[in-house]
Amino acid sequence: MTLETADSPPISPTALRPALRRHLHLIATTVVPLVAALALSGLILALLGVDPLAYYGWVVQRGLLSPSGLEATATRMAPLLLIAASLIVAFRAGIWNLGGDGQFLLAAVIVAAAAPALSGHLPNWAVLSCCLILGAAVGAAWSVVPALLKAWQNVNEIITTLMMTFLGVSLANVLVKLAFLDPRTTVPQTRTLAVADRLPRLFETTVSSGLLIGLVAIVLVHLIMTRTAFGLKLRIVGANPRAALHAGLPVPRLTVAVFAISAALAGLAGAVEIVGVQGNVRADWNPAYGLTVVPLVFLARFNGFASIAFVFLFSVLSIGGESAARRLGVPNHFTLVVVAILLIMLGITEHLDQRRRAAGR
Amino acid sequence: MTQPGHPAAFRTDEPIVSLFEVTKRFPGVVANDSVSLDLWPGEVHVLLGENGAGKSTLIGMLSGIQTPDSGAILVDGREQVIDTPARALELGIGTVFQHAMLVPSLTVVENIALGGPAWSRPDKRGIAARMAEVCAGIGVRVDPHAPVGSLSLGEQQQVEIVRALMRGSRVLVLDEATAMLTPKGSEELGALMRRLVARGLAVVFITHKLNEALAFGHRISVLRLGRKVGEITPDRLTALTPQVVTAEVVRLMFGSDAASAGTASGPERQPFAGGAPVLEISGLAVDDEAVPLADVDLTVAAGEIVGIAGIDGNGQKQFAEAVAGQRPLRQGRIDLDGRPIAALAIGERHRRGLRYVTDDRLGEGTVAAFPVSLNLLLKRVGDDLFWAGGLERSGPIADHARRLVAEYDVRTPGVETPIGKLSGGNIQKALLARELSGEARAVIFAKPTYGLDVQNIRASRRRIREAADRGLAVILISTDLEEVLELSDRIAVMSQGRIVGMVANDRSARLRVGELMSGVAT
Amino acid sequence: MSALFTEAFLTALILGAVTAGLPLMLAGLGEQISEKAGVLNIGLEGMMLIGAYGGFLVAYGSGSIWLGFLAGAVGGAAVAAVMAVLCVGLGLNQIVIGIALTLGAEGMTALQHHFQFAQSYPRLPAVPTLPIPGLSSLPVIGPALFDRPAIVYLAVAAVAVTSWVFRRTHLGLALQAAGDKPAALDAAGVGVVAIRSAAVLTAGALAGLGGAFMSEVGAGIFVPFMTNGAGFIGIVLAMLARGHPLWLLCGAVLFGACLSITTALQVAGVDIPTDVIQMLPFATVLLILILFGRRAALPPALGVHYVRGAR
Asked: Which residue ranges traverse the bilayer (chain A) (predicted)?
């Protein structure tokens, strides 16, 4: 029920203070779940007999403070940023593309096969460009079925993208083991791209220039989604599909475009990981970045710049966690626990915040 | 209009239910402000009031959907807390909501069985038998094994009334029960209410239609802006003439100054002088599961308002969407200014000047979370004026919004405010601003005043007149007959997906339209 | 290829289909109940994993497979309880919380497993079978279907019970109403939150039982991430079976056959890489979705939080 508020002022002159309050509020609703999640995860560590302070200390030391750790963290960010960009496009347009892992892995395998084959025939910059484009194309291709089913049959994309992920992961393994097997090694893996032929390092560090690709991609995605007519159209479809139809937007075509862009970015992430870091794909390799980045973009409220910060944080946790696994004997699956708790804390914080606001009005 | 006499066959020394100074607040709004109300056995107690007067909240508290912030509810003289719908049923208060509370995929008996002990088997035969008994007692007929989704709204209401009686309800609350019914259906419901109170029930009948209040009620309470502003007792209701009661109720509902004005938005329209046809629709047919359209012909001239009257759900929505381009046609032509547009997409039709003001303001008309400024451009995203090469130009977008907000008197804290935070009336103003600005040629208004308060109803109707006076071709779809009669030059009546008659808006129009709507005339 | 249709091959195929299909069926059955009541349970995978771990742990520790099954069901229900509180009670996004629960369960079980069984990889003894007199001596289907652990018969009975509840009880009507028009259920005096919570908890218990079956009967061991998408397949099966538990049974067995055909083919002496075969069920589902996608029916109020009095 709404009563007319006929006496509300036409335009508010005091726009600054609410803006400041909004920012503070945003920070509070982000920091609170973060701290709560780290605390709860620490409690779990303590229950398992690990000193949480020592663990977190080690993680910060190895993921953030040590130069080699920081470089590893920065390198790790590249694929994660691209996946975050992929998810931002999809989620802002109201599409649950949970098929990132399949798109990522399949693109990675095909790029891993193509890169050594191409190198030598083409100049290095051309090989790398081809590989990046190829990765994006493979990712996009792997979303065609869910895209068409969603756009014209309205089949729930959660189900179809998950199915395509399982299918893609299996197919990637089949390709590694049967089609692209490197005959010169005993380990089942693809041929390796020579280190010299990979994406150039940044300055004097070990950081792959994939980081730049990731940063550019996510900033570009953010600007497209917030500042362009195309992005606005996608956001309308996401926020209210019926309004999009009413406004005459070509919803099925936009839906297909969202899938294509989102999956291409996931595929690009795979390509960057291969030509930047791995150089080959071993059988059964699956970093499963897809679902773990979901909480990060939610925490960033689909904002590209905030996503960079959270991807950085997660990379520290992840690189430090891998080191801690070797040193402290805590498997890096612990990172999954942190992320899960973080997501739940975020949900609860937002809920409480909404309740508080409703009560305070 | 005859005044029903007060049946005096039962104990009438104590009301079944009393509300005592109940108050209910929502964020920013006092929905009910110490309202007191007695529900007596043997009486149809009419609650009259406009949208937003607090009727729904009052019913919510009777039926256990909301609880009062202060005040008390007494049942048989004892104070009770009604905090769940189950508790309300236990106390003998049954509610029939405006939107049927039945599960469409279940049959009538299954719906009635709903809520039985979890692990036991529903006794469908027994329920059907008891149902037949109750139906016979109050003179209605319902097929117990029909899926509810296949019943008409009137039939669904009957099912709900029967269900309430089978649960032993002594108080029956009917929320806007006639809103979706034909005039004949409303008459039948009125007769049914009288039979119910004759059995000793108390009926609460909520409506905003004055004539029904007078025809069916024994007692009338008027709500306005959350307060009970007056009550007409049964003895006064029988003593006074209908004219006197009407005047008093109008004064109570709209305040003293409104008694003469009502919702009329101005003087009667000058008879339409004739003009060149702008929008020509012929042989329109549309496939639809619920109401397919067939053989719809309609021509609207520049400066003309053609009203489309009819009971809600007879194809009006399908018609508006088909013309606007939101639904594919099976066959038919649509010409705008002599050029065919039936093959064009929604956006192109909009650019050519065809506008559609939807009745589903939040569902499809706007994106609630987006600022007012972008909602005002929702149908022009990518337009070169506001997006340079696809890049947003925030200056022109804000200027455009400020201009329309001022011109159409949209009350908003700012053009960046999410439109969902505005009231229904202001959202409607924004929609009108979006559709009527620019190079409009023909406008379809779908239920343009649905759910608005008097001031906004008046403002919306004024806009519709002005649109026609500017030379636009106007189609006015409304389920409010008064509105159609007030504004239209000609009136088409829609029934079951067809236009069943076209009437010039003269003195006999009301009668003719009523006959066409109820299916009496052919 | 003449060896393909020998008795040994067919027995191995059907036996494998039942063993691989049963967890899917249990999870799918749970999802079906939960979806009927209007809750999309993406956390099913996590509930299965917790069930698998809890079942294995208790069965190993106590030596009783039945205590293990009980622990699996309780573990699954415990994860479901989190979902019930957050999604049904507070109305948080069902998909987001579902993902969180799956990730969390993956991490927790892997972590726990590491700390408890990092050095040793204990195996459970084979679960004793309960031959059904008469039927178990039939050729092929006798050993494949009627000489199985008792839990298999119970799981099939659960399908029959669910079917009976859906069609013949007040509870079935209430579940349907909760997913179709929760306000009507509320108006009829039944708590929507209670019905939905019960449905989610049941789904969790069934998924947990399915997980426990995987570790105790199927593998005899717990391996991190061992459910490998079974929960998600269960969700798809539930959507395709459109509210009919019996269809679900058939679908799960067919799916199980796809998963187990490698083993059967090895029995027959045909060598096909596991990964190729593993793609079969997913490809099948996609094909089904492409062919019948439009008809995959979901309740109108699925995924929509119910707030009394909200319009």
From this structure: 26-56, 77-96, 102-118, 125-149, 161-181, 202-225, 254-276, 288-314, 334-352
